[in-house]
Structure formats: structure tokens, C-alpha cells
Write a structure and sequence with these properties.
Elements lengths: L7 H17 L4 H9 L6 E3 L8 E5 L1 H14 L4 E4 L4 E4 L2 E2 L5 E4 L4 E4 L10 E6 L5 E4 L2 E3 L6 E5 L4 E4 L5 E6 L2 E6 L2 E3 L6 E4 L2 E6 L2 E3 L10 E4 L2 E6 L2 E4 L4 E5 L9 E7 L2 E4 L2 E9 L3 E7 L2 E5 L1 E7 L5 E13 L11 E7 L11 E13 L1 E6 L6 E13 L9 E3 L9 E3 L5 E12 L2 E4 L11 E10 L16 E3 L1
Parallel strand pairs: 1-3, 2-4, 3-6, 4-7, 5-8, 6-9, 7-10, 8-13, 9-14, 10-15, 13-16, 14-17, 15-18, 16-19, 17-20, 18-21, 19-22, 20-23, 21-24, 22-25, 23-26, 24-27, 25-28, 26-29, 27-29, 28-30, 29-31, 30-32, 31-33, 32-36, 33-36, 33-37, 36-38, 38-39
Antiparallel strand pairs: 11-12, 34-35
Amino acid sequence: MKSPRLTRRELLRAGVKFAAAAALGPALRPLLRAADSGSPSRRVFDIRDYGAVGDGTTLDTAAIQRAIDEAAAAGSGAQVLVRGGKHYLIGALELKGGIEFHLADDAELLVSTEAAQFSGRAALTANAAHGLRLTGTGSINGRSPEFMDHFDAQDEWWRPKNFRPRLVVLTGCKDLEIRDLTFRQAPSWTLHLLGCEHTLVEGIKIHNQLDVPNCDGIDPDHCRDLEIKNCHIVCGDDAIVIKTTRQGASHGPSSNIRVKDCVLETQDSGLKIGTETTQDISDVRFERCSIATGCRGLCLQLRDEGNVSNIEFRDITFTSRYFSDPWWGRGEAISLTAIPRTPETKVGTLSDVRIVNVRGRAENSVRVSGSTQSRIRDVKLKEVDVTLDRWTKYRGGLWDNRPTTAVPGLEEHGNPAFSIRHADRVVLASCRAAWGKNIPDYFSHALEAEDVTELTYPNFAGEAAHPDRDKAIVVR
């Protein structure tokens, strides 16, 4: 079909428009684009109009920042457009409220490796940027290999240089949305949400190096009313971890957080709360997630004065294994611990935890372990099915209590399938313990309980790893 011909009047109109764009420059081009789109209330600020080059070597920070600032001044949900087909080299950018920062198609932000380009510790930051949206199918590349000093063959991980930025730190933002973006090779934490409220994180992908320490996936910290869903995360450190860090104390507790339908791969914990628990964390639900691999499947680590309560894990599968010693976790299937960080720490309480329809394969126990300073209370495990096996080369017969100086960090102990100690009112309903092909001597009981009150285990199934030596169930 032939293209329709423009009338003389339409040609004249187009000529006037292009002449205006050339004469008036980048300041009015967003207005012309808005007029073209038929939506004059929504202006588009193309970073190329502000001088961004996108050749991967020219620093585009200033040009992109000008586009962000003008979009924020325009308001009404103005869009900062980062077009595809280009690689934009950036230092620190400050995002603003009320805008959409959109990485279209295959657009890539390439993080500078020069420390002088970062006034803070992150590539993208925002402070009290209410109504901010980060969207698009483009990516942010943190270039982690270039922030590493050398590979430590003994510890089996990379040793970082003195400076390595986080990718994104968003602080005190409300009505925040992060959707569909890809984050690559973060040198440190990938997405740190500090004191944010009414937040949606959906469909993002994180592809970090598995052997780089501290490159967490998503860290909600002192956040409230947050939903994370349909994300795919590969990272060396914790994949999704909810915290209340000491430095963020002014932002209050963490609560009303939902994590669902995510696929996770890590060398640390898949789904985690802690270890920073300096204020309360409550009303958290993890559901329908798959942990392809990690050093712990599900993990609650109470180490500080905050209280952790009303937590639910539901419909989750996992594989948990040993990694080299520097990585926290020794392959525990599930690890709920309440242990003081130091002998002087006044540790809070861990209570009201529900784990339902969770199943997987692990190299170590399901642990519910309080301490003499803080007993765990009101825990229900229902239809938890775990198979213990050994398939990695690392030394076993250990539990990992780190970080703590109040008790041994790595505790030598036999590995029952389920271990409950220093706890009250614990129910194991229709849970099952099984053993794989490789059963070392330190694999022991199906269920072992020590210093536990009101323990019940209706319809529990499983025998000892070595039934000729150990009882299936031992309660001391």
C-alpha cells in the first residue's frame, strides 16, 4: 500500500514545527513531542536533546542530570527518555520526584569506574522523590569486574578494591515504582530501598556475579507497604533481604511487605530478614518463590534489639548447599535464629512465624534456634518437606550462627533434619524428613528438640539418617 500524501497545508505545518525546533533548541523540543503525542500534559525529555552522546566513553552524567532536573520542574509525570541502541557512561545521578525515568528498548547506563564521579556511594540516588517511576526494558551495568582487585582462590571469591558503588539507593520515597529494568554486575548492593513507602517492584532482573561479595539483590530497609513480585535475581549475596539498619533508624520500622512469584539464585540466603534488626520488622509474607540455589533457603536472623513478628513463608521450593567459608550459611534448609550480636547486645524477640508448603533439598538442617537471651516463640511449620543430602566438597557437621561473638560463629554439631531449641510453642504439622544418597556420619535424627516447651508434631514422618544408631525423634 502506498504511503498517504501530505497536503500542502500539512507540509507547511511540519516545516514550521521543524524550524521552531531548530531555532529554539532543546528547551522546546519536549513541548513539540508532547503536542505530537496528543498528550500536552505529559512531556518527554529526551536526554539526547541535552547533549547525551551514548558512545560508552563520553561522560553523560551532566546531560542526563539536566534532563532529570527539567522534567522534575515540569511535573505532571514528565518522562526522562533514555533511548535504546546506546551506552551512556554515568557517574552519580540524582533522580527527582514526579517523573518517569525510562530506559527504552536496549538502552544501557554504564557506571563509571572513577571514584571522583560519585559524591555519595551509588550510581542512582533519590531523596524524598515522591511519585518517582523507574521503568523500561533497558539496563544499568555496574561493571563489577572492574571494581575487583583480585580473585582469592582459597576463599573462592573476588576481593574488591577500596571503592565500589552501590547501583541504586532510594531514600524516603513514597509512591515509588520500579518495573521491568535489568541490573547487571553490581559491585555492591544492587537496589537499596531506605525508608520508602507505598512501593512496587515488579518484573525486574538482576544478573550479578555469584562470586562477588555484598552484591545483594533487593534490600528493603525501614520500608512499609512494599510489594516485590515477578522478579528474577542472580547475585552472590542475599537475594531479597529485609532489614532495619542502624544508620536508617530515623525512618522507623519495616512492615507490610509482600514478596511473591520470584526466582532466585545466590551464594547466600534466598529469602531473608536480618541480620540488621535494630527496629521492629513485622507483617511480612513471602510466597510462590523458587530458590534455585543458595547457602540457606529461608532465613530469619535476629541479632539486635528490634522485634521480628508475623512472618509467613508459603509455597516455596529451594535448594541449599555449602559454599566456601567466607559466605554466611552452611547449607541450612531453613534457619530461624535469635542470637545476640555481642555478649552485651539486648536482643529482641522472634515470634509468630508460619512456614507452609515449603519443600526442598539441602545439605543441612531445618533450624529453629533461639538462645538463652531470646527464646523463639509461636512457630508453625506445616507441610515442610526436606531431603538432606551431601554433594559439595566443603567440611560438614556445622551450624552457622554468624554474625555473633556471643556464641561460636561456626558451631560443630550433628545435623538432624529438623532441630528445635530454646523455643516455646512450636508446631510441626505434617512435616517430612528424608535422606539422600550420601549420608555422612554427622547426619542424625529426623527431629531433635532441646529446651523446648509445648512442642507438637502431628503427622510427622521420617526416620533417622542412621536408624541402627539413632532414634528418629529425640526430645531433651
